[in-house]
Amino acid sequence: SIPWLRSSPMLATSLAKMAGQALAFPWKTSQQLACATSSRCFYELEQFQQVSVETLAGPTIVQLFGQPDKGTNLAVLMLTAVLSSYRLALKAQNVEGEFLKRFYDLAAVALEGFASSGQGPYDLAARWLHA
Prior knowledge:
The chain is 77% helix and 0% strand. It is mainly alpha-helical and 131 residues long. The N and C termini lie far apart (34 Å).
């Protein structure tokens, strides 16, 4: 639990912006940290959710599946799992049309990108499970 962060919407907003920038930065460590942080903060911090759908780029998430580093693959898989399985609470800020569209578009791009990574449907997942 991170109560000190939960009590500060400004910190959660800043963290979401930094996670989006770190994900886009072409450095393995920043991408891993961005995926891990986003995975955890997405279900912990409502303000992080609101901002991260604008700062995290679906194509960038999908691109990370092609990285040769297993740590990056695991981190992006965790982020994709959180995004695609998260059930939004029925609150006014979550029901707002633009947020819902961005959230479901981000989740769809990440999940469809994972499914199409490799040479066939779910090829990458099958190779990971086989290894």
